[in-house]
Write a structure and sequence with these properties.
This protein is α+β, with helices and mostly antiparallel strands. It is built from three helices and seven strands; from the N terminus they run E-H-H-E-E-E-E-E-E-H. The protein has one domain: Thiol Ester Dehydrase, Chain A (Roll). The two termini are 20 Å apart. The chain is elongated and about 45 Å long. InterPro entries: 4-hydroxybenzoyl-CoA_TE (IPR050563), HotDog_dom_sf (IPR029069). Its EC number is 3.1.2.-. GO terms for molecular function: fatty acyl-CoA hydrolase activity.
Length: 133
């Protein structure tokens, strides 16, 4: 998904503020979930919501106002209550940053992570391959 860097997203050094990378990444994760058929309303009907447990950014290049970037979204499922989403931020062919998100699915009633987040996404996904299922 393409995103244009806006001037108000810059820090005092004239490049994109680190928090903005996280906003870009979260926006693209939600777009990926929606494209797969997994919307917030459907998740809430199940009494769950995705949560962010940890996020890291590895910077490779600076972004400045007017740059156009593309982000991808690769879900990695394993054992247990968490999953990872790896995202690359690219300006054309150039790797600008990598964002890795560790997430889970929160049971809104118990306020605990569900045991099998993959099963929740699989239950709702219309296009499961978009989220690595």
């Amino acid at each position: 998904m393409g995103i244009g860097v806006r001037a108000y997203e810059l820090d005092s050094l004239g490049h994109v503020n680190g928090a903005v990378y996280l906003q870009y990444a979260e926006h693209v994760r939600w777009e990926c979930l929606l494209a797969a058929g997994i919307g917030l309303e459907a998740l809430r009907e199940l009494g769950v919501a995705p949560v962010r447990i940890e996020e890291t950014i590895r910077y490779h290049r600076e972004l400045r106002a007017g740059d156009q970037v593309e982000l991808d979204c690769v879900f990695e499922w394993g054992q247990g209550k968490v999953f990872r989403v790896r995202q690359e931020v690219r300006r054309g062919a150039e790797l600008v940053a990598e964002v890795v998100n560790v997430g889970g699915v929160l049971d809104l009633g118990t306020r605990r992570l569900v045991a099998d987040p993959e099963a929740v996404f699989r239950r709702l996904a219309v296009v499961p391959e978009l989220v690595g299922l």
